[in-house]
Every structure is written in C-alpha cells, then in structure tokens.
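Protocol step 4 of 5: obtain the predicted structure for the target chain.
Materials: sequence only (see below). No template structures provided, no constraints applied. The aim of this step is simply to have a reference model before the mutagenesis design in step 5. Sequence pasted as it appears in the construct record:
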Amino acid sequence: MQDSSTILLVDDEDSIQTLLTYPLERDGYRVVQARDGEEALRRFGEEPFDLVVLDVMLPRVDGLEVCRRLRAESTVPIIMLTARDDELDKVLGLELGADDYITKPFSIREFRSRVRALLRRAATPHFSSRRDEAIEQGGVRIDLLRRSVEVRGEASQPGVVFSRRQLLERLRGGSDYREPRTIDVHVRHLREKIEREPAAPELILTVRGVGYRFGEA
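Step 4 output (structure tokens):
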C-alpha cells in the first residue's frame, strides 16, 4: 500500500474514471473525481491535492486552460491525458506547466508508474543529498531550498554533456515510458526565461545528436 496521497482525476468519460480510479485506490491513494473543467477547478479550490490527472478534451473549460489556471496558483504535479497522438497538445501542455503526459490508449502499468514517479519526485527535495543549498555557475544561480533561479549566477557541472534520457532520469527519477524529446520543450522554455538572446544561447548549449550542457564560465 502507498501513502494516502489525494489525486484529482479529471475526465468526462465514465469508463476512464472507472478504469483509472480502481488501480489508484488499490494502491492506497484517495481519488476525487471531476468530469469537466469547471468542476475540476472548483474541487481543486476546496482541498489540497498531491497530484492532478487531467484530460485535455473536457467540457466547459478544456484541460489546457485548467492546467494553465492550476499552474498559476500551485506547483501540484500534473499528468495530462490526450486521446490524440497530437504533438501540439503535448507541447502546449508542457509549456503551460504540465509535468507529464500520456496518450490514450495506455497501459494501466504505465499509468501507475507515472503516478508513482511524480508523487515520489514531489515528496523528495531535489538533490537533497547535496551539501550546498544553492548552485552557481556562469550567470545562473539556482537556489534549491527556495526553488528559485537568478540569472547571472552559476550552475553545476559546466561543460559536462547530458543526454536527454539522463536529464529525464535526474528530473523525474527515471526515463521509462517517457519521450526524451519533451526535454527540448523544457529547455526552450528555460532559455526564454534566462538567456539574453534565446535564439543564440550562452548558458544552456546544445550538443548536436547528444543533448545539452551548461556553458563554461
């Protein structure tokens, strides 16, 4: 049995609600259901949640808009569900702050793995074994305790190349079932926030065919 984490499950299909609620409850989670975007936002405001599972296609308020509103006020982990193999939905969801996405149809084993990974990641402070509370390198300061980033401080391991899969493993505790290219979306988003000129980055550099590295001071 897992801990008693509470999950908000948002999907307008009764069959999906039944299919996903049973294994989550069997794993020890408490599940609160919502069947449209307005109900999801209302329920989210009524009590704290540890994770939100959010379908893209919802009545009243669609899942992308729900994701945007939730992220504006909370860091709750969000898994988005999409019925289409639509790259635009995935990219938009990640840009709006979703932590992961799953394309229907998917296996229950995969779904449970994603849920466990996100809850574990949310409960474990990033790099908790590090002695330092902040990382600084070449223009970026990352405060791990406050989860803040200041431009023009430093970042760890300058010059070291990380593959997309390595980045997924460090960020999410594993890369199983995850599309490595989602890292590209996050990198683009980071560059827009911290680079002087995102189209000509100085801090987060691309190593073609491999991954990314921090620029050396």
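Step 4 remarks: Confidence is low (pLDDT under 50) at residues 126-132. The two ends are 48 Å apart (CA to CA).
Proceed to step 5.
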